[in-house]
Specification:
Length: about 500
């Protein structure tokens, strides 16, 4: 159990509602226990408003409607008041037990539904504590309580950084376990919630996949890479407060501008600006050992052949099953050997800071800024020391938006022109072709895994684009030895 907590006034009740809303997941049921006037409806109103990001949203008590649905909230919310329920049998008509409805259920007077109703629910008990205050206690299953404790830890973190009463709003995250929140303040700020995660299953040499490919396991990497970027004139979020051990950062909000057009397609001018920024980044001298303010240092691992091959392995491990291809029929040994031969020369070539996920979701267009500051760079914690061609490949074959071959060529020309005299464009384009196939092969596996293992089917919508990118890049003469394998892996092009 958590509590009892003393809530002094309506604002404290609203903050508790926000704190719970930040971590509430689809399908949750929250029982609101308390006598008349204990604050159940006040809590529900603040909870729904926070999820709808609408402080003026009208949330009346559902005393007469019994159930009120709010699809404008994310996730949707079913707010029920069972006070007028004459008999528990009437519950079957209310639609609160639909297992296919992912809405969060807020239930006032849950005892009216009968003993044993709402198993697995979170229970919030509210009682009056004097004339103006309330006492609140929370109980429920351990997974729900753990999420609440994390949210309350974020509120404590904000309190220590002088943002105790700031309103919190959810932000869409990414495919990782990190969470983000937006603070309703002036200026707006971002909370990164990136607690250390338990290791996944062992894949090779006694290590999980995340360690084999050097994914960031703490916020130290984000702090180190962001500090290095800002020190060299690039626009990465300034860190305003940090708790490195807890995995909490308070960040500058770089804005909401996109390098995409309003219709979701790539804006050629903005993409070209980004390609020029990449050229500057690759001309910069980077030390692979980066300081971590407030701590020690972070060393950038080499993006070497072993890392590339481990990433590639996701495709036969997960994408073959997605395509219903019998792994026995696939020449895995030949596939791996061919890739090893093509990647081997990279280990002896000059390396630079490689941000790894350098594509539209992680690039903020800032039209009011000039020079390097015009493009904000976020989600850079997994950076390695690797080939310059990799981030160019990530940009010109954006996994989430279709970049035409014509625009890809334009971006390569802009980049090559910015690299100046002596730059070997022909060799570089061969490297970009290799990196685009490597990266997209990895993504085929990742998106198939997100669907099969993690229950996130939305990423499958991007697979046709990724498959087309692979086909395009395999046209490069240097990749002829790979084509037979992908003729078997990929579906036939329309």
């Amino acid at each position: 159990m958590i509590g009892p907590m003393r809530l002094e006034g309506e604002e404290a009740t609203a903050r508790l509602a926000e704190d719970i809303a930040m971590v509430a997941a689809p399908g949750w049921t929250i029982r609101l226990d308390g006598d008349l006037g204990a604050g159940k409806t006040s809590f529900a109103r603040a909870f729904i408003s926070a999820l709808a990001d609408s402080p003026d949203l009208e949330v009346p008590s559902p005393t007469y409607t019994i159930v009120q649905r709010y699809d404008e909230a994310d996730p949707a919310v079913l707010h029920a008041d069972l006070y007028r329920l004459a008999d528990p049998s009437e519950m079957t008509e209310l639609g609160l037990d639909d297992p296919d409805d992912p809405a969060i259920r807020l239930i006032e007077w849950p005892s009216q539904a009968g003993e044993g109703a709402f198993p697995g629910a979170l229970t919030l008990s509210l009682t009056m504590d004097g004339e103006t205050a309330r006492a609140a206690s929370l109980s429920g299953p351990d997974p729900l309580m753990d999420r609440l404790r994390r949210s309350f830890a974020i509120r404590e973190f904000l309190t220590k950084s002088t943002h105790a009463t700031t309103e919190r709003r959810r932000l869409q995250g990414d495919a990782s376990t990190r969470r983000y929140e937006r603070l309703v303040s002036d200026p707006q700020l971002i909370v990164m919630d990136a607690a250390r995660q338990p290791d996944g299953p062992v894949v090779k040499d006694g290590k999980p996949y995340s360690q084999l490919v050097h994914l960031a396991e703490s916020v130290h990497a984000f702090v180190a890479v962001g500090t290095a970027l800002r020190s060299n004139g690039f626009a990465a979020p300034e860190i305003l407060a940090q708790d490195l051990d807890a995995g909490l950062l308070l960040l500058e909000h770089l804005g909401t501008g996109s390098i995409l057009r309003d219709d979701g397609g790539p804006d050629p001018g903005r993409y070209e600006t980004v390609s020029l920024l990449l050229a500057t980044l690759h001309e910069t001298d980077w030390n692979p050992v980066l300081p971590v303010p407030g701590d020690d240092s972070h060393t950038l691992h080499r993006y070497d052949q072993d890392v590339f091959l481990t990433e590639i392995s996701l495709c036969p491990d997960w994408y073959l099953d997605h395509r219903r291809i019998d792994p026995v029929s696939f020449d895995r040994a030949g596939f791996d050997a061919t890739w090893r031969s093509l990647l081997a020369p990279l280990d002896d070539q000059p390396a630079t800071l490689t941000l790894r996920d350098f594509h539209s979701p992680n690039l903020i267009w800032r039209p009011d800024q000039q020079g390097l500051a015009r493009v904000g760079i976020i989600d850079h914690q997994d950076a390695l020391f690797g080939p310059p061609a990799y981030d160019v490949a990530s940009l010109i074959q954006d996994a989430r938006v279709t970049v035409s071959p014509t625009l890809q060529s334009r971006l390569l020309s802009a980049y090559a022109g910015a690299r100046g005299a002596g730059f070997d464009r022909e060799a570089f384009e061969a490297g970009v072709a290799l990196m685009t196939v490597q990266r997209n092969t990895k993504i085929l596996g990742i998106f198939a895994r997100l669907n099969a293992r993690d229950g996130k089917p939305a990423y499958l919508a991007h697979l046709p684009r990724i498959e087309d990118y692979v086909r395009q890049s395999l046209e490069h003469p240097s990749l002829a030895t790979l084509r037979p394998f992908y003729d078997q892996i990929l579906p036939r092009a329309d």
